[in-house]
């Protein structure tokens, strides 16, 4: 009966959310802004602890916070309404600086509605002062807090995962102790098979079988000081995805092709579970994108989970400014996690991806030794809960 009650509550809340904000919605058939060209979030858009449902008009979330627990910063992209199932006292923190903004109490059964206005959320009843769309929340009460939250999209809009155009998949090859021999040139037969599979996938993409997808791949090439941060992973695939012709979502053919490729690689590498250890989707936000001369540039991939009290916005901004001081950083991009509903666990709790491109390993080494990088790295490491670093050279 509890599940049925929750379902009925969600249905009622969705209906109530629509009525609360109906005066804010545009006339039928129109949208606020260009919904076919949505701006991707700069922070994880996970505004709850579990996404329960999503369609083109609403997203339904469960938000459950234990006493003392603090949730990481998230970004509200849409107007939203929440209904309190178990009250407590909540503190709100800036997602940019990590600073405390305000604290408020909640009551059992109360419903609150908010409208996004620029970079601020506005309480439609005026009880709470406007606050940043990017923020974190902590339960500072003595009881578990629980709410159902419904986001209201201004027009027919796909999920945030549909904006993802990059997929990073890392694999940990298992050394089973069996000698599979070599190809006569000193190369492992297994490694040759893996490269053949990846090369074939890349060739198929470039020859139009799946021309919407560009595939980069390689084996671990971390600096010796950062091998441990690869967390045992040995191979990587970075796929530049393409949305469907209507711009709404990644094509099902692309997703199926990548799943097939990942399964094949998992079998060849003998990975645990027969697939990648991490799959992380994101929309790349480019800080710099200069011309790269080398036909075999080195790419430095960083997946990060920040501490819940980290000044995430400040850290990302400072990281994105490094190319102004370190010319070896030929290209730099970043983005928050955008895995689809049901695939969130594949990201292994990582929140952000950062990727830097260098002409070669020598330039990567110069970057690591640069005083600006060293100073920033010391600051950033103090705010990181978990990290995965993976360097690779295309095809090697």
Q: Output the structural class.
A: alpha+beta
Number of beta-strand segments: 20
Rg, Å, rounded: 23 Å
Distance between the termini: 56 Å
Tally of contiguous helical segments: 6
Parts with pLDDT < 50 across at least 5 consecutive residues: 17-34, 244-251
**Which sequence of SSEs, written as H and E, runs from N to C?**
HEEEEEEEEEEEEHEEHEEEHEEHHE
- Portion in strands: 25-35%
Relative helix content: 10-25%
Q: Strand arrangement, largest sheet?
A: 1-2-11-4-7-8-9
Q: How much is the average pLDDT?
A: 82
**Net shape:** globular
Q: What does the largest sheet look like?
A: 7 strands, antiparallel
Overview of this protein structure:
This protein has 396 residues and is α+β, with helices and mostly antiparallel strands. 21% of the residues lie in helices and 31% in strands. The protein has six helices and 20 strands. The strands form four sheets. Strands 1-2-11-4-7-8-9 form a seven-stranded antiparallel β-sheet. It has a five-stranded antiparallel β-sheet with strand order 16-18-19-17-20. A hairpin with a 7-residue loop joins strand 8 and strand 9. The relative contact order is 0.14.
SSE layout:
Blueprint: H1 2-20, E1 50-54, E2 58-65, E3 74-75, E4 79-86, E5 89-94, E6 100-105, E7 111-117, E8 120-123, E9 131-132, E10 134-139, E11 145-152, E12 166-171, H2 189-206, E13 214-219, E14 235-240, H3 252-269, E15 278-282, E16 285-289, E17 298-306, H4 312-321, E18 331-336, E19 352-358, H5 361-369, H6 371-381, E20 384-393
Antiparallel strand pairs: 1-2, 2-11, 3-10, 4-7, 4-11, 5-6, 5-10, 7-8, 8-9, 12-14, 12-15, 13-14, 16-18, 17-19, 17-20, 18-19
Helix pairs in contact: 2-3
